[in-house]
Amino acid sequence: MLLKQRLFAAEKIFRPNKAPLAIAFLDTGISPVADFTHPQNRIIAFLDLVDGKTAPYDDNGHGTHVTGFSRKREKTSFREGRRSLGSSI
Fold first, then answer.
1. What is the value of pTM for the model shown?
2. DSSP H helices in the chain
3. pLDDT tens-digit series, residues 67-79
4. Partners of 58 in the β-ladder
């Protein structure tokens, strides 16, 4: 089974009522760029385990890049006629 098929199958099992989904990323951080904050802020939590900062930031860029794939997937799904996951980060 293709990864895409497995993901949609898992969604039907674990989200039968289409409850909002939150995705956690453990990486270098996240910059509050427009893709994550507009039209609504989807960054609902941020924890800095290195410097203890409280506002979202990414001094390396890798975490923001990786998180961007989740947003791209939603936009692609929407264009293909599938419902968007509407996930929070």
1. 0.63
2. 3-14, 34-37, 62-79
3. 887 766 555 444 4
4. 29
